[in-house]
Fold:
Amino acid sequence: MVSTYDSVIEQIAQSIFSTMLNIDLARVDEPVPADHDWLLATVHIAGEWTGSVMLALPELVAIEAAAAMLHVNVTDVTAADQEDVASELVNMIGGNLKSLLPGPSYLSLPTIVSGSDFGQQVHDAQLLDDVVLACNAGLLRMRLYTRLADVESST
Structure:
């Protein structure tokens, strides 16, 4: 799936992970396995453009990211640390993306869901982009949703 924001999402995520965490990300075109625990962090953008940015991290990636951001050993990372860092990462990604979208718009506080074997749905929205990136610890996924009314009015 390619949209006007597909490569922008990739570049934003790569820049943040590289700069803040010293973690290199590379785009991959392979399916993300569903057989492990996920940490989903989401922010919503409301205003002239309305949608949601979702960051999905498997446990190993969340632990590595938290250890890098907090400058601690991976064995010292707690679940709360992982959630805090995932919240901060999606907030930075959403904020960078928001600055490129039609405005004015506002960014919500991040929400977190963790676990396995659950579904995620953004009500009254359409998936606009689905970007899968890889680092040494595994794959992560970035998704961008847009409000259906925005899609319908542009056609």
In short: The first helix runs from residue 6 to 21. The mean pLDDT is 87. The chain has one domain: 6-154.
